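Here is an idea for our session: we take a single protein and study its fold together. To get us started, please write out a protein record for me. Start from the sequence, derive the backbone structure tokens from it, and show both lines together. Go ahead whenever you are ready, and we will take it from there:
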Amino acid sequence: MTAPGRGWLANGLAGVRILGHLVTGPLLRRRRMGWGAVCSEVEADWPGNELIPDPAWTATHAVTVAASPEQIWPWLAQLGQGRGGFYSFERLENLLGCQIRNVDRVLPEHQDVVAAGEVRLAPQMAMRVARAEIAADLVLVADFRAADAETTDAVGPGSAHAGSEDPGSRTGGSVAAVAGVWSLHLRPRPEGGTRLIERLRYAKARSFPEQIFGSRHLIEPISFVMSKEMLCNIKELAERGALASRSGADHIEPTLA
């Protein structure tokens, strides 16, 4: 298996799909916003929901993975720019200057997401780690841009760690306002395997530019295409590792395009 998201053809087709979803807009929205998830998963109160009690919109995506939560977690723990990438369409991300490099192996040096404190989306853009429970929940938070330097210091990437007592970062009494929550959850199935659930949750826009660039009509179709690819690739990577473990293989050499 080559590292996810490298092929020009796959990235080109993904771009076409994004344009298609942007054009069709609301016609396919209901299907996109609950892709792969059952009703109980869509309605569930997942960790991280409390950070935005009254969201502008939310989406839930899910896949079943033939691997244990412990076998899937390492792929989640190393998410991020400068780490393991996002297992999605790398070339599309890099057209926006994200400098993503996806990998197809577990990176031991990037397994402590709590110590990292943040997951970078691009060199100058990061989400802070609000919660990280191994083999269960990873909750990442994006804050509204601060209006002054004091608040900027309070909400900067990595200013809050998993298990912090307050959903916002605090400095001198100021509290960061949460703009968005991206969370990933692992739940074992009684019949075997694991459900990998993604929850996206966005706060109401506070300004006109946020209404435009953070619009559900723009963000939701794009995030759907990218998230679907990410979830499917995590599924494939984790299942490959689980199969290797069952067959007694110690290591699978990565093949990078």
